[in-house]
Predict the 3D structure of the following.
Amino acid sequence: MSLRLKPSIPHRDFNWRHDLGLRMLVLYVAFVLPVIGMALYFERVAAQRLRADVENADLSLARAIAEETNLSLGSFLGAAQALGEEPAILHADMKRMQALFSVLAHSRPEVNLVYRLNSQGMMLYHYSPTPIKHSTIGVNFSFRDYFKRAKTTRLPFFSHGRISPTTGQPVVTAVMPLWNANGEFIGILGINIRLEALSLALQRIAQSHRPDEHFLIFVTDDVGKVIATSETSSAANSPPPDLLTAVGDLSPDLGRVLYSGTGHTVLTSLHGQAMLFTVASLPSVHWHVLVGRSASSAFTTAENFRRAIHLALLVVVGTGVLFWLALMWQILRPLEEMAAYSRSIGEEGPHPGEKRLAIQRLGYRPDQVGHLARTLLRMEADIAARMQELHTLLETSTAVASTLDSATVLRRILEQVERLLGTHKCAIIAWDEERQAFVVRASLGLSEQYAQRLVIARDEFNSLTLRAIRTGQPLQISDTESDPTATAIRPRARAEGYRAVLAVPLPTQHTPPAALVVYYPEPHTFTRREIDLLTSFANHAAMAIENAALFARSDARLQEQTRRLEALIQSMGDALLLEDHQGRVLYANRRMAALADLNADEMTGVEVGRILRRILAHAPDPTAAQAAVSRAIEEGMAEITLQQHGRLASWLMHVFSVTDAQGIPIGRGQIWKDITESREVDRMKASLISIVSHELRTPLAAIKGYASTLLADDVEWDPESQREFLQTISDETDRLSALVSDLLDLSRIEGGSLKVEREPIDLAEIIAEAAQNAHPSPGKYLEVHLPNDLPTVYADGRQIGVVIRNLIENAVKYGGEGSPVRVSVAVESDAVVVRVEDEGPGIPAEHVPYIFESFYRVESGLTQQASGAGLGLAICRGFVEAHGGKIWVEPRAKGACLAFSLPLLRPSNEESSP
Amino acid sequence: MHTLRDITVLVVDDAKSLREFVRRNLDARGYRVVTAVNGADALEQFHTHPIDLVILDLIMPQMDGIEVIRRLRAVSPVPIIVLSALGEESTKIQALNQGADDYLTKPFGVGELLARVQAVLRRAHQSPTQSEPTILRQGPIVLDRERHEVTVDGQPVELTPTEFSLLEYLMQNAGKVLPHRVILQHVWGPEYGREAEYLRVYIGRLRQKIEPDPNRPRYLRTVRGVGYAFEA
């Protein structure tokens, strides 16, 4: 048979303050401890009192015995004294002595020998009432103590206890010293008293006092030898000490107590038995009476009393423990079991059957605990049922909400209603905006015919469904055959085969009003629980319907918005990139892809480091560019120079962290902005100031210089020089004013306020004049080719003059000292084209696209600025374009060729010249 | 004393009017004048004539004035006066750093030009007066006025006249703090006083030449906001 441990007490996870059992125990201990204390105290006090009583009783007995013994012994001493005065005895008259002795011996049965010693201790005569062992007459007894003592006293006394050599019996002797009239010691008279006889007397005395109790009484002589004992040798329980035994030999305690005097008690062990002895002295003879009795009998009362107290305490404690155990097993443990069980209710997993069985067993008890257990079980069953319902509801709701497709949602709702209520017919009836009526939106188990025909008008107040929707309360018809409100639907119900209907409104807010309708084939009263369950489900179902509807709406809107945003971001001029925490591209726009020289669709997921490497591959100074990127990542912004399409481009890289709506970082964004143009503008602004300053200061310096030269009075200038200086001042002033008008022209061109005053012009004349202005000595270096049939050109003469002069100046300046300058005019299609060529080094290809821009620097540093303001060609382009013409650089194997065209415009009211 | 005819001035400017203005004025005052129209021309002229002073425009085609100064300074301590339309301090300092002795911003009057020319020439041809010792010695630095020579630890150091004058003045007053204005008036001439940037550039250049560690000068000490001192 296997031994199974009982299920242990459920683990208690509360402290003692919350433990009822422990608190009861503490209460009990608090009550019982004083009781025990009082009982023990009382026991102690009472025991002392009882012992004192016993001792007093024993002492009085000892005293009484001492008194009586004293009396009896006194009579012997009296007899001895009386005899000692007899002359016959004094004179040792044998015959008379015999008579006297026999009288005495026969009158006192205790006496077994009366004798007379002479002054030398020699036995003169002895008399015994009983036959003697052997005669000791003539024997010298002078060695005896009593003989020696007798010589020192005239009063009778008792000798120590001893064995009489004459009779062979233990005796004490009453000794009377004998003195004659002369005061001479003449011997002694001795009366031997049998100790056995004394013991008998003692027994009598002992029996006369407290005969009910057994006492052990000793009489000891002055040297502590037992000379009488109350015990007879027949007494079985404690063998009497032999006569003449020293009490010190019996028990050292006894020997000691003899000398302590009357009233002292001692508890000692005698023959292995605990005895209580009490001492009383016989002062006249220095004898002692020892009254003893067994300690057990002496303290019986005290012992009994103590036992009673102990028993009472034991009962109290035992009862308490029993009560506590009963409390524990009958109340606390069941309570704990129930508490543990109630805690486990609702937790995952089934309850162990054993636990449940224990609670069920408790439930059989008729008391309150049983009641509680039964209630707990009922509650558990209730909770389980509710949980099951909730679980089902949750499952069904989850199933319903797991899709956002409206049709699927409705179908699932009906499937789950079927599952919840076990019905086979159900429908969702909702408001149809088009038909302006309530129609079946979805159904399960209903015939198609019924579902299609069921149309409830807005004002059909009898309709159960409509009423349910209106009131917002679930409504039912338990039996369509008996319910008076169901007369209208009765035919339909019969046809479709249902008897009971339940309509539950769906609490919709963003979708048309609707209700869930359940049909039962048999009459059925829907219980509160069924209705509640379906109502709860209807709430979830309504939510699912609305979610689906809202999702359908928002999805379309979201897609539209995303598309717009995408278009916006993709069309941005700036390159944009979003990277995740792992440094991979989440999103990049087309511009970024182009910058990295990748396809837009292969950007996502690419490592950002790789993208940056691809971009920086275009940097003219990769180290500086890499440093700039690091700076941008650290500081948020940095400028990076890249070589793109044959020229340097400045990009501003902006790095920022991207967070979602809650502010949680989702990655990092980069925006690359092409700032080449704005940098160019900045640079131009800066160079404009220095160029204009230089260009203005140079003529100014000449003017100031010559003016101050003329003013200086330390040198006398000849008139020719003076005139020359003044001429220079005048020329430089012209140059200054030309420059000012150039600047004005340029500002008009750039500001868009340039006016072209067209008039018929003579190109040949303008070219000649411009050549004169541009080159002081045209001579052999300037060639001008004009066609013979040059048509009239309508143009602003001043502006075209400026253009040609600038081009010639340019050719002179860049063509070099010896290079000839060739100006040619040709008519090509509807335009006249003017070309200015030189044979200098030509214009480097990389500058060609930009030389017509304002302040464009072909050379860098201070040298460029010598070539003029850089305004010339810009002004040319401005003027030419204002005329509707074009200006360009024509490629040449050697030298440079700048050309411009002017459209041949003919005023409409004027005939062309022949 | 030299006569002015002994002094040849090279005038370099691409603008004819300005070049002529300078040439005519100097010529009228007795200087011998050679002109050049660009940097290359200037260098050629410099090597063909014994030039005592160069007046140089900064902004010229092909080779700018700064480059010309650099090339001249590579071979000669000839005094150089820069003419420029650019009044920015950075350009001024750039020119002085390269070794220009003076800087005139256009436009300027003839009096100003002549004063600068004389001042620069004075510095270049200063000869010691009788009462002053011929040789100044401060630690390892030895300045010989007569031979116009400076040695540091016995090694000869090439100094321009202005640099020489500046060092001479500072060594003469070794241990004293000399305010900017006083130094400028004494070394450059009485018409100077506000050109603190000249001093900054020249002290910098002197430090490069005579200090063991130019970044931590031992002799030429800057007294911030006041001036400079030569530490004895």
Notes: Chain B has a mean pLDDT of 85.
